[in-house]
Write a structure and sequence with these properties.
Chain A has two domains: about 220 residues, P-loop containing nucleotide triphosphate hydrolases (Rossmann fold), CATH 3.40.50.300; about 40 residues, no CATH class. Chain A contains ten helices and 13 strands. The longest helix of chain A has 17 residues. Chain A is globular and about 70 Å long. Chain B has a four-stranded mixed β-sheet, with helices on both faces. Chain B starts with a helix and ends with a helix. The mean pLDDT of chain B is about 85. The chains are: A alpha/beta (about 280), B mainly alpha (about 325). At the A-B interface, helix 3 and helix 4 of A face helix 1, helix 5 and helix 6 of B.
């Protein structure tokens, strides 16, 4: 779906934002693009969506070089959720969606009611102007705008930002559902939980370079110390012991009366990000 | 393409309605019409100076009806004390003697000539009358032309900014970057709506203030000139609104434009002030184009129209450039 080779971009003479990115995104894959502010995430997404011109290297979408790909047909096939909910504040949710969907072929558009139901949007706000919505409601309408055209490729920038926990769970479910439909998702985020739960593969980007690219599971396993911490009760006393994972193959290798908890010492995706990029995501 | 343009146009209409643009234009239309019909025309019809005559022996035989007679020399002094612009004529000694409070030298000469002319028999002056407009028609056309120019160059220009700053603030311009539409349509739709609204305004203002009969003969040329001015100002407004950070910056920039663009043009076209460089001022030619259209004497050369079209093309390219820059911006 997306193929990027030695992608470079510079905002000026001394402001090189991308230093030769290489990655591919397969059809139907959820690909996470993780990086701190100013790392080059947005620049990459803007190049891929045709907003920024003048890149170096090669990038192709839908099997076509991007310099030739950015036609009206191309824009009919993509959906973009921006980092901020860009909507007409004086129009209602329905009017916003009617307006934005009017640029797509009729046979491609999903029903507004169906999309808003899927996003569990409050019915009594349907006809009220967006200016009266909470941040979470605006994010739902923005997501609806990205989904309404049934895109084959979705660019999502911080999709769960501004949502409460139940909203975030709902969004993750919707993204999963899109993947099941065969939609490819390019997910740009700071949220490690989203990346861990949703992405088939993630790329860590910092200073315009990809520092690591693999599945979240492999990234964590590769860097795991394979230790397990066991919390247990023995002769009325609560104790904790750390053992090597292979030791478990023969069962719990020490005397105990009751096991309270077992925790693997596998690193989190955030630990991996810090390890590869040398800094946190904030 | 037409479907997309239609969607954009409908949305722009709603934006303008919610921004109270049409309400504001209607308000200006009413205000201008009231001013022309109940203020300007009456003011233009008023006498320049009141003339008072003290002539106890009735030595002056051909006195105009515009002259007010007084009964005594004291009464003449008292009335001039109240009306310091007035001119008194004391004919008590047979020969008219002028009495007035001194003003500037040029004005005083004018006051003397005017006062003495009112003692001459009517028809004494045989000046050739040029054109078919009555003084009232002439005044109506002149002021309507000025108000239309002002409305499009000032109020319309600010209206564009008000609408575009809203869209800019909401960030929705960026969404259009990823929509399947030709990006130029976004600009074209805005131009179309402002052009239409300016043309409708021009028709109504002209009909209400110049009269239906006169309007019919001058309207096509007036609309052409209005369209040229409207397109130039809309494009200039779009560039400023896209380039400048907020409405406050825009209004400051606008004040500068108004001072340096409108003031010399109005001064040169409507007063005796002569500015040698005014022929190099593009808006002077546009204003004169509109004025000539109102007086039914279109004298614009092909070079004028070519200049206008070139300006529109250059401004359009400028808007495209800043529009693309705006779409690339971060939130």
């Amino acid at each position: 779906m997306i193929e990027v080779k030695d992608l470079t971009f510079s905002y000026g003479k001394d402001k090189q934002a991308l230093h030769g990115l290489d990655f591919t995104v397969e059809d139907g894959e959820i690909f996470g693009f993780l990086g701190p502010n100013g790392s080059g995430k947005s620049t990459t997404q803007k190049i891929l969506t045709g907003i920024l011109k003048g890149h170096g290297g090669k990038a192709s979408l839908f099997g076509q070089d991007i310099s030739a790909a950015h036609t009206q047909k191309f824009f009919q096939k993509i959906g973009v959720l921006f980092e901020f909910p860009y909507l007409y504040a004086n129009l209602s949710a329905v009017d916003n969606l009617k307006y934005f969907s009017s640029f797509y072929p009729k046979e491609q558009i999903r029903s507004i009611e169906e999309v808003l139901n899927e996003l569990e949007f409050k019915q009594d706000f349907l006809k009220k102007p967006v200016s009266s919505y909470s941040k979470g409601m605006r994010q739902r309408i923005s997501m609806a705008r990205a989904l309404i055209s049934n895109p084959k490729l979705l660019f999502l920038d911080e999709p769960t930002s501004g949502l409460d926990p139940s909203g975030a769970v709902l969004f993750r479910k919707i993204i999963e559902k899109e993947r099941k439909k065969g939609t490819t998702v390019f997910l740009t985020t700071h949220n490690m939980l989203d990346a861990d739960l949703l992405c088939d593969r993630v790329a860590f980007i910092a200073d315009g370079e990809i520092k690591a690219l693999d599945t979240p599971k492999h990234l964590k396993e590769r860097n795991s110390n394979r230790r397990i911490v066991i919390d247990y009760l023995y002769q009325g006393r609560r104790e904790e012991k750390t053992i090597e994972a292979p030791e478990l193959e023969i069962g719990i290798p020490f005397a105990h009366d009751e096991i309270i908890s077992i925790h693997s010492q596998e690193p989190t995706l955030e630990d991996m990000f810090i390890k590869y990029t040398g800094r946190g995501l904030s | 393409m037409w479907k997309n343009l239609c969607s954009l146009f409908k949305k722009d209409c709603r934006m303008m309605v919610s921004g109270k643009f049409f309400l504001m234009s209607s308000g200006f239309l009413v205000l201008y019409t009231l001013y022309v019909n109940f203020g300007y025309i009456k003011f233009m019809d008023a006498q320049l100076y009141n003339v008072y005559l003290y002539d106890p022996a009735k030595t002056q035989t051909t006195v105009s009806t515009l002259v007010q007679r007084v009964s005594s020399k004291e009464a003449l002094d008292t009335i001039l004390l109240d009306d310091t612009n007035g001119v008194g004529i004391d004919a008590s000694a047979g020969e008219p003697q002028l009495v007035f409070y001194e003003g500037t030298e040029q004005t005083d000469c004018h006051r003397i000539d005017y006062a003495l002319s009112l003692l001459q028999p009517p028809g004494n002056c045989n000046a050739e009358v040029i054109g078919s407009n009555t003084p009232e028609q002439k005044a109506r056309k002149e002021i309507t032309c000025e108000l239309l120019f002002f409305e499009i160059a000032a109020a319309g220009f600010l209206g564009i900014a008000a609408v575009l700053f809203k869209e800019k603030g909401m960030g929705v311009i960026r969404v259009h970057a990823i929509l399947p539409l030709r990006k130029n349509l976004f600009i074209l739709s805005k131009l179309a709506i402002f052009l239409l609204s300016d043309l409708v305004f021009a028709i109504l203002l002209t009909v209400l203030n110049v009269g239906l009969l006169d309007t019919a003969s001058i309207l096509p040329e007036v609309l052409i000139q209005t369209a040229l001015l409207s397109l130039i100002m809309s494009l200039a407004g779009l560039i400023c609104a896209l380039l400048l950070k907020d409405f406050r910056q825009f209004t400051s920039a606008y004040l500068l434009i108004a001072i340096f663009v409108a003031t010399p043009v109005f001064l040169s076209a409507n007063t005796a002030v002569k500015l040698d460089w005014i022929y190099f001022h593009p808006f002077y030619h546009i204003y004169m184009g509109l004025k000539n259209a109102y007086f039914g004497t279109p004298m614009n050369s092909p070079a004028y129209y070519l200049g206008c079209l070139t300006a529109i093309a250059v401004l359009f390219a400028g808007v495209q450039h800043v529009f693309c820059k705006e779409m690339r911006k971060e939130g």
